[in-house]
Design goal:
With 99 residues, this protein is an alpha+beta fold. It is built from 2 helices and 4 strands; from the N terminus they run ββαββα.
């Protein structure tokens, strides 16, 4: 494990008739800004839903501050500490100049 504050390592998710994520990997270091971009059906929403605990992953690991987090414990880990990966404004962007 490195100094990443968040790492998704080889996350896979199958839905009936569809492989939504095939060993997806994402690494975020403190202070970085990332964007997920891709075609419709590429797995962007599924990856975020796995990260947020909305859908279970089929395989892979999630690390928070270098520690492996079981998906069932992810909500508890979020309550235990404020994420160092997201210290900015978390509101949805509005019209230009609205923030």
């Amino acid at each position: 494990m490195n100094d990443a504050c968040l790492q998704l390592d080889r996350i896979s998710k199958h839905f009936p008739g569809s492989l939504a994520l095939n060993e997806a990997t994402l690494t975020v270091h403190a202070g970085e800004i990332h964007a997920l971009m891709g075609a419709n059906g590429a797995g962007k929403s599924t990856l975020m839903n796995v990260l947020g605990g909305l859908v279970p992953k089929d395989s892979g690991q999630i690390y928070l501050d270098g520690r492996s987090i079981d998906q069932r414990l992810f909500d508890a880990a979020q309550r235990q500490r404020q994420s160092s990966c997201n210290r900015g404004d978390t509101r949805e962007p509005g019209p230009l100049g609205s923030h």
